[in-house]
């Protein structure tokens, strides 16, 4: 049973290393290109005056 655990642990370590490499590469790519357009803009909130709940005069 310890052989199974060892093999599983090795596969996990290899997958984590690959994931870390990929994330570092993506981070370097983002740093080189700068922030994406609209990255600082937020979505309109639900309480936006254009929303369906904003008009409460008909209550």
TrEMBL record:
Record field: compositional bias (Basic and acidic residues): 1-19, 47-59
Stretches for region Disordered: 1-59
Superkingdom of origin: Bacteria
Protein name as catalogued: DUF4169 family protein
Origin species: Methylobacterium brachiatum
């Amino acid at each position: 049973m310890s052989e199974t655990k060892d093999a599983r642990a090795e596969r996990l370590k290899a997958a984590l290393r690959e994931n870390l490499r990929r994330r570092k590469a993506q981070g370097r790519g983002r740093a080189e290109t700068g922030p994406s357009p609209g990255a600082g803009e937020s979505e309109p909130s639900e309480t936006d005056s254009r929303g369906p709940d904003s008009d409460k005069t008909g209550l």
